[in-house]
Amino acid sequence: MADEQKVLTTRQGHPVSNNQSLRSVGERGPATLENYQFIEKITHFDRERIPERVVHARGTAAHGYFEPYGKIGDEPASKYTRAKVLTKTGVQTPIFLRFSTVIGGKESPETAQDPRGFAIKFYTEDGNWDLVGNNLKVFFIRDAIKFPDMIHAFKPDPVSNRQEPWRFYDFVQHHPEALHMVTWVKSPWGRPATYRNMQGSSVNTYKLVNDKGEAVLCKFSFEPKQGVKNLTSEQAAEIQKNDVGHATRDLYDSIERGEFPEWEMCVQIMSEDEHLNLDFDPLDDTKRWPEDKFPLLPVGRIVLNRNPSNVFAETEQSAFGTGVLVDGIDFSDDKMLQGRTLSYSDTQRYRVGANYLQLPINAAKTTVATNQRDGFMAYNVDNGGENPHVNYEPSTQGGLREAPKPKKDYHQWVEGHLGRYQTTKTAADYQQAGERYRTFEEWEREDLINNITGDLKQCPENIQLRMIWHFWHCDPDYGQRLADGVGIDIEKAKALPPLEGHPAPGQDIDVTLYDTGEPEGDSKTNPTQASVTTGSVK
């Protein structure tokens, strides 16, 4: 049967021999702009829905402010970052925060078992900063080239127009890194009681850069001061009988009553080396950084105190992008972050328009001066130069000029062979999912088992067996309870061989057997393999 399947190609008809990995400089290196296969795939995906968001369609939002403590933990914030929004005390930065469900359409119920979006636009004195994350601190996949496949599998069947569990688990069974997120999202944590009672997370890894040009890896988290509260399936079903928009109602009403919801912003910090001592890659967004080793350090607080005056003009037309950073906050080589940075802003230009940044909800509250012109729905010219005839740079005729350079810029040393890589640290794909299962309270485990059991009963037997095999390797009790619920002989599931092309559960990829794309010997003697070195010596 497999031999009879059609070969996957690009829209240009080129055969696709690797649909799992971006091209990057080494296993952990940054992705490259010439990722044509990925760019074609993701930009087409960005344009698949008009005008509703492809993902995060159902949402609500509110205005508020961020107030930094001036410290990160017990240290001055300036030790880690030169970002004014995080270091200047006594300044309240305006924010706009949009909450959302991910997979469902615009009118889908807010009781759905689904990740929740947590996207913040900070209108800082140095321009906008967008922090676009979710409530859960991990994700399903770790390489952005898989994002269109994942969403296609989770969205309704293109023929029946129904969300089918077999499609979800058919995708997941081939991606063990998704087991951690599935364990979270199929538990009560996949159904926050309200938006006010859920956490927020950047999910992806960023960098903080200080005045000395020194950088550290970081993840952002938001802890609700109202407390965390989740719903069981039964509780969610009872709410949905009467209200499909209970979370929107709750947020709006609480702000109107003057009960302003508040979160504490925290960061986890790690040095920017490879951390060979860890059993997971810190750039892998399907993994959590253990809080006993990398504690949550308070940075500041966010408060929501004003509802939108018009939902369409603000909530629906608000547009976020992971590439919208301010000086002192930088990108890591997280492959999901790098892919999202292209995809998000590309989607906004398509969904809202080329001039979406001229809309009041998206416009920076500081002076904007560019040489960008025209395009659909342009209604102003953000020209800050003295001579309106000059729309280029550099110029001696009164045009715009570059801003002063930082005292010491951050330079990342990048060296490696250009190829398509998967992470070789795969043991934690099962480990962290099992740890999560064991830390749940019994009522959370029961809800998790009931939810997955209900899904698997609607799947073909081969998918049932493989998923029980996966979960058994995460934790034997996890797999056994699912097998009992579905009516599958656990021994039949355990007898399956490991996934083709994947290491045995609990093991890292054996680099001696794994085709990393690196050439044998010196790259100079192997012209088919590119070698890339960029950056500057520190």
From TrEMBL:
Residue numbers spanned by region Disordered: 1-27, 496-538
E.C. no: 1.11.1.6
UniProt cofactor(s): heme
Bias type Polar residues, positions: 7-23, 524-538
Entry keyword annotation includes Oxidoreductase: yes
Domain (Catalase core) ranges: 9-401
Keywords, comma-separated and alphabetical: Heme, Hydrogen peroxide, Iron, Metal-binding, Oxidoreductase, Peroxidase
SUPFAM superfamilies in alphabetical order: Heme-dependent catalase-like
Pfam families: Catalase, Catalase-rel
InterPro entries registered for this protein in UniProt: Catalase, Catalase_AS, Catalase_clade1/3, Catalase_core, Catalase_immune_responsive, Catalase_sf
Family according to the record: Belongs to the catalase family.
Protein name: Catalase
Source species of the chain: Pseudomonas asuensis
Gene designation: katA
